[in-house]
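I am still learning, so can you show me any protein sequence you like together with the matching C-alpha cells, please?
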Amino acid sequence: MENLFDLTGKVAVVTGASSGLGADAALAYAKSGADVALLARRVEKLNEVKTEIEKTGRKVIAVGCDVTDEESVKTAMKTVFDTFGQIDILLNNAGIAVRGGVDSMTVEDWDKSFDTNVKGIFLASKYVVPHMKEKGYGKIVNIASVNAIVADKFDVFIRHSYNSSKAAVVGLTRGMAASYARYGITVNAIGPALFESEMTSGTLFKSEEFLNKYNALNPAGRPGSRGELNGTVLYLSSDASSYVQGQFIIVDGGGALV
C-alpha cells in the first residue's frame, strides 16, 4: 500500500521550533522524509534541535525569526526559499500563553497574545501562500488549542487572551481553507490539550493540585505525552489528508467531551 504519510521530497517550515511540540514535530517531519527549516527567536536552542535532525540524514537549517515582526518573517522565508527552493508544508506552531482575566491583565499582555498566536500565523502564511498558490500545492497546519472552545476551569490559570487568540486561530484557519482550497492548498488546525513542554513545565506541571484536577476531569486520566501530537501533525501535513479542509482536530484525551 502506498505510504500516504511519506514526505520525501517535501520541505517543511516549523515556527516555534526551538522546543516542545514544535521541536518534536520538526523531528517527525524529518523521520518521514522531509527536509526541514526551523524558525524561532532563540537560535541557540534551534541549533540543538538542528543537531538532532541532522542525525536522520535530512537537510535542515535553523533560522532566527520573530513571527510578530514582518521584516523578520520576510527575511526568514527568503532564507528558506534560497536554501531549498520550495516550501510544501508550513506548521504555524509559535505561540504563548499569558495568564490573566480581562479584569486584571494589561493591554500589553493582551496584545502580546494576539501578536504571537494570531498575527504570527498571518505573517508566516503571508510569505508562503503565494508560492504555494503558484505551485498548486501546499499544506498549512495551525496549532490552536483545545482552549479555543473549552474555557480554563481553574481560577489560578485563567487565560482569557489565550482562549480568545486560539479561537481566532480556528476562525483564520477556516477562512484560509475556503479561500485557498482551489489552489491545491489545505489549511487545518490542531487543538492540543495539556502536553508537557517548556511553556507548561514551569507552570501547569508544577501544580500538583491542578494536575490532580485535570486528570480527574480528563477521560484519559492524564496529560498528553511527548510525541502524541505527531501523528495528527503528520496526517494534516501529508497526502493522507488531501481532501481534509478547514478542520479543527482536538487532541486532548477526550477532555472536551466532559
Remarks:
- The chain has one domain: 11-252.
